[in-house]
Amino acid sequence: NNEKFMDAGFAVYHLNKPQNTFFSDSKERLNQRYSAFVKGHISIRGSITSFQPAVYYHRQGTFQEIQYGTYFSVNLLKSGNYIGTMADYKVGLGLFHRLGDALIAKIYANVGDFRFGMSYDFNISSLQLSSNLRGGTEFYLGYQLKSFRK
User: Fold this and answer.
1) Which of 99, 104, 141, 147 has a CA 20 to 30 Å removed from the CA of 123?
2) pLDDT per position in the chain (150 positions), as tens?
3) Beta strands in 24-147 (DSSP E)
4) Cα distance between the two ends of the chain
5) Is the dihedral of CA 84, 86, 88, 89 positive or negative?
6) Can you tell me whether residue 81 is helix, strand or coil?
7) What is the DSSP letter of 144?
8) b/e code 19-33 from CB counts within 10 Å (16+ = b)
9) How far is residue 84's CA from residue 48's CA, in Å, rounded to a whole number?
């Protein structure tokens, strides 16, 4: 287990600035949203564990969000190790901070190219007076396209 690599990405949403309504003839338009990320993968030599630090940035109109943190993961089973072509199995825990707003606890499981996960936002901003540290729960499912890297 000696992997070290970095990924980065950039995306633009709402290129055509669509209308901000489904039901009326509003002239209000959605602003374009810009998103960028940088994340790393640092394996701990001689173990089945790794860290995945990351920074995410989103901007839409005058609103922006910066989120940073890291995952800690354990490779329970890696394809090609004694079993042929079986899928990878990995579990992980993460802790992220949304600048000026919340702490985000995350948990996930990778099964092959699929990722199942859950996160919970703990509000730590001035809004915590009304939210009593309650936040939001999110569930997600992801699929990673095969890499063309050798």
Assistant:
1) 141
2) 678 899 999 999 999 888 777 777 777 888 999 999 999 999 988 888 999 999 999 999 999 999 999 999 998 876 555 545 556 788 999 999 999 888 999 999 998 889 999 999 888 876 665 666 667 899 999 988 776 554
3) 33-43, 49-60, 63-77, 89-98, 102-111, 114-123, 137-143
4) 17
5) negative
6) coil
7) P
8) eeeeeeeeeeeeeee
9) 18
Q: How far apart are CA 97 and CA 70, in angstroms?
A: 10
**Chain-centroid distance, C-alpha 17:** 25
- Please check whether residue 70 is in contact with residue 49, taking contact to mean a CB–CB distance below 8 angstroms: no
Q: Encoding tokens for residue 63?
A: 């609103």
Q: How far is CA 35 from CA 55, 66, 103, in A?
A: 11, 10, 20
Residue with tokens 């939210």: 131
Q: How many CB atoms lie within 10 A of CB 42?
A: 15
Q: Tell me the C-alpha distance between 116 and 140, whole Å.
A: 6
Q: Are 67 and 55 in contact (CB under 8 A)?
A: yes
